[in-house]
Amino acid sequence: MSGGGSWAVAAVAAVTAGYALVSRRLATTVVSAPMVFTAFGVAVGPAGLGLLSLDHDAGPVLTLVEGTLTLVLLTDAMSVRRRDLRVGGFLPRRLLGIALPLTIGAGWLLAWPLLPGLTLWELALIGAILAPTDAALGESAVAGPGVPPLVRKGLKVESGLNDGMVLPFFVLFLAAIPGTAASAEGIAGTFWRALVLSTLLGLAIGGIGGWLLSASRARGWVTDEWRQVFVLAVAAGSYALAVVIDGSGFIAAWVAGFALGAALRQGARRAAVSAAEAVRAGAAGTAGTSKEDAGASAEQTGAGAGAGASAEGGPAEGTVASDDTARPAARLGDFLAALSFLVFGAVLLGPQLQHLDWRIVVYAVLSLTVVRMVPVALSLAGTGLSLATVAYAGWFGPRGLASVVFGLLVVEEHVPGTTLIGRVVALTIALSILLHGLTAHFLADRYGDWHHRAAFRRPGLREGPPAPARGPAPGPGPAPGRADTA
After folding, report:
1. pTM of the model as a whole
2. Torsions phi, psi of 53, nearest 5?
3. For position 153, what pLDDT does the model report?
């Protein structure tokens, strides 16, 4: 690294350790991890101490952010179940199927008058880069106890899927810009390799990997530690093989996450059913044998299935195998995402601060408001959701990790227009980190209070029943912890 790599590493280690020591305390304030790491990144970048810069450290920087996004894409996809889109799934379906394309289009059209000098496809690229959302920038907005489960789950599913759904737009728009690496293949070639082949590759790696891991676990061949490491291997393998065929490693990893999660859940269900049947068969076949022999047989067959079923035949730990398996990888992804915000502050935001003008500022503000909120309102029209909910879902569309990575990839292309794109993306993300972070706690509490009161006044409220009790209520509420069943 430039300016003495050891100093840069020491500085990053110091801020990481410092944040860790006060992380619980900061969690109760408006100061978020992206705020801290972004600010520190500006301090150690070219605008500050000069310990980290894209000119000298492009290799490690891009490796970090690409690896982070790959891991986040895969673990987010693993956590999505079909029931998330069935039970109350109209909200994420509309946000992803209607609001997301409209957001890309609105960002594209709005950039036209405000950002002169960019080509049609460069304007489209800005719309795609700033379309995905990142719930980590306003975690309390979706995790707050007062937020109704319908909204909380809907925003989480949207945030987990929209970065992957934006990838095809990003890849195709980038391929349409002359001079980029993707333009050599052309739009047709990019479509074939990045979308079709990468998708098939991800399905194969994730599906086969999940089947192998389920089979190994059922036979007791894999330890818990290496079962969780397996997820990292799938992420790295799917990304690397897609790059080998000149495809999109991000798309391959995202699709592999869906296939891996589905395969693990299916394997866990089969193992749980087999174990339950073995227990029942052992109990039914005890004629002429002692109760001790029957219990030993049931215990042996249940352990051999590796699924963890209850004595009554119900599934236990095995039914959530994919969640447990992916948890360490997801936590690693969260940590790497924090470091990615540090990199963002150092190499993207800091160098652009002195080159801003009113057009960039206006576009950034409109991108966080009009470009997001109007498509969300249009997509939720006719759903019966209250205006407060529509406004809440519209505001909490923070731009985060995916936009950071996409922005860095574009800046590294070094083609005309990328400098301006980098400035727009940097300021929009920075404002999102600040504004969404500052308002997350306050608006989550206010929205939760509104919903708590509205749910008692209107029992048939579309948002569903109130969350667990928040102090004195206008009437009897549901038992604590039961709101998630909505």
Report:
1. 0.84
2. -150, 155
3. 87
